[in-house]
Amino acid sequence: MTPSVRRAARGPARRTGRAAAAVGCLLALVSAGCTGGPGGASGPDPLDKAAGGPIVVASGLDVTGSGGVRRQLIEEWNRQHAGRPAEQAELVELPGGADQQRSQLLGALQSGSARYDVVNLDITWIPEFAEAGLISPMPEAETEKEADDDLDFMKRVHATTLWDGHSYARPFNTDVGLLYYRPDLLTKAGIPTSRRPTAAWTWDDLYASVKTLALSPDRPDDQAGWTTQLKQYEGLTANTIEAFETAGVQLADSQGRYKGSAEQLKKGLDELLDRGDRGRIRPAALGSDETASLTDFAGGRAVFLRHWPYGYGALRNLLGPEQYTVNRLPGKAVLGGQNLAVTADSPRAGHARELVTFLTSQQSESCLFDAGFAATRASVYARTAKPCWPGVAAALRPAGGTPEAAATGGEGVPEEQGEAQREAYARTLSAALNEAVQRPRTPYYGAFTHVLQSHVHALLTTDSPDSGKTAADLDRELRDVFAGR
Q1: Structural domains for the chain
Q2: Of 270, 284, 303, nearest to 179 (Cα)?
Q3: What pTM was estimated for this model as a whole?
Q4: pLDDT tens across 54-110, in order?
Q5: CA 403, CA 82: separation in Å to the nearest integer?
Q6: How far is the C-alpha of 365 from the C-alpha of 73, rounded, in Å?
Q7: Nearest-CA neighbor of 303 among 415, 194, 222, 420?
Q8: How far is CA 92 from CA 43, 117, 298, 344, 371, in A?
Q9: Exposure of 197 by Cβ count < 10 A (0-12 exposed, 13-18 middle, 19+ buried)?
Q10: Contact in structure between 42 and 64 (CB atoms under 8 Å)
């Protein structure tokens, strides 16, 4: 069990500590709001002035590249707060994959070795960090304008910030599984437009197209029907939960209590095995992450691809606009993304909350969407959306990407998909987000995903998969994991 889990298991002690902190505030007659417990967060803290700057934001690496949109939004905040040193912000990007970043953040916040004021957390980590007392609840809306602003966040996306009846973060960028496909390769295989993906597509529809592709005499030897991310990492967990949810299998309730059974798990595993059938999927998918699967798709080695929204922008640099398109994933799609939370011991909590509000504002969310992330606000997907901050938009424009260069086909400028295609993409993405499902909400998510990945990857890579045995073993271990044992 990780140190954070051990700390989380001592819930009463943590709550007692918060109560003592509240009493201490009263005895000291401190007028500033205490932020140690649920509902305790308030407006800008006068102590921020004494603490000084900068406001330190810890985040994983930006998939939009160095100098990406997250850093540009921080720079925009700094421009708007020029001349106020205590309100300047600094972005610290943590190396490594999601699991490594989680471990770094847990270690830093528990030990106090790094003075982070804001942390950009994967949505699955919110219960763990909240239970461990490492992040503070966000203040409730005090005005009608603030309440309306909160309602602009997509309902299912905002639900990822909640734990134990309180919101501990604000949605920054979101994610959802999507189905990408190659119209050019479908045409080459003789598959008509009437048999291409729609919002009503099922996995059986996809399998039928994959079968037709396999029979095409022009199919290259290394071309498979579809690919995804089945390497032993978090991408495998996302794919597994999508298969489970499509089969009607839910592993936990909203309070993080296990609700599965060996029989249900077998049903979900059989659904996943169907998707991973070696006659359908590219064999390399068993070792693929997002980068590898996107590369195979762009290279024509897979005709269909399950991937995240940022792939839509990334493909601009790899394929022509007529060579790729996207639709909703058949069955259920998993929600992903990151939320911004203020650390529990931040001496700059007031300014940190103001920064979080700025980074998740409508204009900032428009910047995230323009850069390839999925925005968390419903308003961003409307034609009347507020545009990205001008300074950020200019910084994100690719080299040679001025309107004049685009009109003349300037060197290095990817050919854009048309406005109609981009609007269709926005509608598809919005609809997918509004129907997405969450991975289990539990303070023990790190242990859960490790156990799930281990059993599932072993099942997918064996020559004689026994879903019944795997289900029984997984059921036994998950009961312990969700109980914190």
Answers
A1: 3-174+339-370 (3.40.190.10), 178-336+439-482 (3.40.190.10)
A2: 303
A3: 0.86
A4: 999 999 988 766 569 999 999 999 999 999 999 999 999 998 888 889 999 999 999
A5: 30
A6: 10
A7: 222
A8: 25, 11, 32, 18, 20
A9: buried
A10: no
